[in-house]
Prior knowledge:
This protein is mainly α. The protein folds into 4 domains: 49-155 and 165-182, Serine Threonine Protein Phosphatase 5, Tetratricopeptide repeat; 205-263; 266-356; 361-494, no CATH class. The chain is 69% helix and 0% strand. The protein has helices at residues 2-19, 26-44, 57-77, 81-98, 101-118, 122-157, 167-183, 187-203, 207-222, 230-247, 250-263, 269-284, 288-299, 309-327, 344-349, 362-375, 379-396, 403-417, 422-438, 455-467. It is elongated, with a radius of gyration of 30 Å.
Amino acid sequence: MRVLQEVSFIRRKMWQIFFFPSSSRKAQYAKRLIQKLKNRLYNTLYFIDLNQPKFNNIQQAYYQSHKDYATYKILLGHNLIASSISLGEEVIQRAQKFGFPYLTMELARNLMIQYGVFRTNEKKARYYQTLMFEQFELYQAEIRTEAYFQELAVHFSRSRSSKPEMAKMANQYADEVEQYLSRFHTYRLVLNGYRVLSMRYQIENDYENTIAVSRRALDIIENDPTLNTQTALLIFYFNILQSCIQLRRLEEGEQAAQKCLKLVPEGSNNWFSVLELHLMLAFHTNKFQKAYEVLRLAIQHPDLKKLPDAIQEQWIIYKAYVQYFISIGKISSTGKEQIQSFRIGKFLNEVPTFSKDKRGVNISIIVIQILFLLAKTEFGEVIDRVETLNMYRHRYLRRDDTFRSNCFIQMLLQIPSANFNRIATVRRTQKLMDQLKNVPIETARQSGEIEVIPYETLWRFVLQSLELKPKSKRYDSGEGKRGLPSGTNPQPED
C-alpha cells in the first residue's frame, strides 16, 4: 500500500512539473486537471458499441439498462415527467426480463410515485407498488444467496483440507437457498444459489452430489438465454471436472475438460486452471501419456511465467511427477516434444513458497523426492531422509484430513527397516495398505491437491523399484542414521 501511495505521489509531481512548471499553484492546478481528465474518461464509458460479438444477450441488457436508467434519472431530475415515464416503463420491462431486481425495484418505486402523484393513475400506481415489494424480496434473496456463497467460499479456501465443522452451516444455507430457487429465477440467484448447493457437498467431499447439483444447474442455464453465459457454464463444468478426478471417471471428466477449454481464452489464468485439472484427471486414471501431453501444453506456453509464483511452483511439482514416470518408462518422451530434463537439486531450490503450507503440497514434494531416489536405487539417500520424513509426519500429519498421506508416508518409512526388500516391505506394510484402502481417495477428508496421484498407484511403482535393488548390497536396518528411527509406529495416527 505504501509503495502505491509513493507511486501516486510521484505521478502527481510529474503532472505539476510538466503542465505548470512556473506556477505557484501547480499542485492545485494539476489536481484539477487530473479530475477533469478522469471525468471525461468516465463519460466515454457511455459510448459502448453493444453490437460487438464479445457482448452476449445478458451483457447487452445489463449495459443498456444501466445507461437508460441513468438517462431516466436525469430526465426525472429535469422534471420531464412524460419522457421519464415512457423511458422508465421501457427499461423496467427489460430489467425484469433479464433479472435486475435492484433496477426494477428502483424504477417501480419512482413510477409508483409518478403515477400516484403526477398522473393520478391509481391502478398503475398500485401495480408498481406491488412490483416494487416483489422485487425488493427478490433482491434480498439475491443478496443473501451471494453472501452465503462468499462466506462458505472464504472459509473453505483458507485450508486445502475439508471443513467438517462448516457442514452444519452449509446445510442451513443450502436449505434456505433451495426455497429461493423454487420461487425466483434470475441470473445472480441461479448462479450463486447453485454455487451454495455445490459448496455444501464440496465441503464434505461428496463428489457424487457435487456432480448432480452441477448437472442440475447446467440443465437450467443452458436452456435459458437470460442465464446462459460462459462464466456460469465454466463454473459448473469446472465443478464436474474436479469431482471426476476424485471419482476417477475418465470419460465424463474428459468431456467436462473439453467443455471448459472451449469457454476460456488460451493463456488466461482460467485456461491454466483447466489444464491443471485435466492433468490431474490423467494422473488419477493412469493415463500418464495424456498427462505428459497436457503438461507440455502448459509449460511451453509463454504466459505461464506471468502467473503467481505459487502456481508456477505447482506446475514444477507436476513436471517432477511426469519426469518420474518418464524415468520408469511409463511415459514416452522423444524428439522435439521432449520436455527439459529434471534435476532433484534444482527442484528443491525452485519450490520455496510451499514451505508455509505444512500439511498441503509439501506432502507431494516429499513423496516425489523419495520416489526418485528409490527409482535410481539410491537407497542410502532414502535412509538419510527417513528421520526427517518421520519428524514431518509427527509434526504435521496428525489429523483426519491427512489420514491417507499419513498412511502412505508410514509405508515409505518401513522400506529401510525391510532392508529395501520387496517381500519384507509388503509384509510390513500390509496393515497400512488395508487402512489406505478402507479410506479411498473419493471419501477421504483431504484436498485433491495433496494427493497428486493416488497413493495406491504410486505404491505399485515403489515396489517395482525395490525389485531392482542390487542383491549383493545389504543395508543396516537398526536404529540410527542407517535405519528406521526408533519409536516409529506402524499404525497411522488419527
